[in-house]
Design goal:
mainly alpha; DNA polymerase, domain 1; hpI Integrase, Chain A; 4-stranded mixed beta sheet; 14 helices; 56% helix; 5% strand; disordered C terminus
């Protein structure tokens, strides 16, 4: 086995290899150089050469970096740099095995889904732009609303109510047909107040439709039959008379939220999150919410319990007289 070169030289040669042969971006090279400098520092402090590093050394150093405040993403970059360096040393014949292989950074915390408050969800569902003069916050918005076809209001109202009432994914909503048929992916049964949808993993499920959503859909259907021939199966149509697309839905919902004065960007999945969170706040029946959402695993639904707790904690902080300590001695 060839003798190992001095640490700084080995690192410099490896970085040159990454720059010239691998053609890594300068930003990546800079991050890798910092990570390898930390590796060299650990080795020097413990009296080790680079080729003498063992898995337990690397594991302990990663734990130390984590304790010092490095997050999962930074640790992943550090480990990538170290792993690549030792892989290169192995190809050079310097070490027999890579001491960083199999070592993984801690998993990043899963971000909580963003949901509307109950008041915001109701405000969005009940918003009715009737007169351009008092429904828009700006002249440009007033002009846009004045030019829109009247039937868009009925369609949009039905969309918002159905998303919030039944917790549908956007793809499930957009695939709904007016009537059940052999070729239909999803459809509504208004007499039973149910939506039949095809979810992830090609799993079918039936979800209830609330009274407000049911009324909104009936009002939309009364308008819709005047706009399109009976041969068009799609429940929700674009201005061109075709099935509404996912991008059109996202853009429209974003605009509706702005018109309703909501202080946040609203997308279709946020209404699904709101449906789940508000249902759990009222019932605490996690299994029922799992079935309604069509989650294959209960762990996917459990994230909403964290969201519910966060909501309760905010209420507590705002309302309870002992929630915040005073700074006075």
């Amino acid at each position: 086995m060839a003798a190992a070169p001095p640490a700084p030289e080995a690192i410099s040669r490896h970085l040159a290899h990454l720059r010239v042969q691998r053609r890594l971006a300068e930003r990546t090279l800079s991050l890798y150089a910092d990570a390898l400098a930390r590796l060299h520092g650990f080795c020097e402090r413990e009296g080790l050469t680079l080729e003498a590093v063992k898995p337990h050394h690397a594991r302990g150093w990663v734990a130390r970096l984590h304790a010092q405040g490095q997050g999962p993403r930074s640790l992943a970059i550090t480990l990538s740099a170290w792993r690549g360096f030792y892989r290169w040393l192995g190809r050079e014949g310097v070490i027999p095995a890579n001491p960083v292989d199999g070592l993984k950074p801690p998993k990043p915390a899963s971000p909580l889904p963003k949901a509307l408050s109950v008041d915001q969800a109701v405000a969005l569902a009940e918003h009715r732009p009737s007169d351009p003069a008092d429904r828009a916050a700006s002249p440009a918005a007033a002009t846009r609303l004045a030019r829109e076809a009247p039937w868009l209001q009925a369609r949009d109202h039905a969309i918002v109510e159905l998303l919030y009432s039944s917790g549908l994914r956007s793809a499930e909503l957009l695939s709904l047909d007016v009537h059940a048929a052999a070729q239909a992916v999803g459809w509504l049964d208004l007499d039973a107040a149910e939506a039949h949808v095809l979810g992830k993993g090609s799993k079918r499920r039936t979800v209830p439709i609330g009274p407000a959503a049911l009324q909104a859909v009936r009002q939309w259907l009364a308008v819709r039959e005047l706009l399109t021939p009976p041969t068009e199966p799609a429940l929700f149509l674009s201005r061109l008379g075709r099935r509404l697309t996912a991008m059109q839905l996202r853009n429209r919902l974003k605009q509706l939220a702005q018109d309703a004065g909501l202080p946040t960007h609203v997308h279709p999945h946020m209404l699904r999150h709101s449906f789940a969170s508000h249902l759990l706040q009222s019932s605490s029946d996690l299994r029922a919410v799992q079935e309604l959402l069509g989650h294959a695993h209960i762990s996917t639904t459990q994230v909403y319990t964290r969201l519910d707790y966060q909501h309760l904690a905010q209420v507590y902080d705002a309302a309870h007289p002992r929630a915040r300590r005073k700074n006075t001695p």
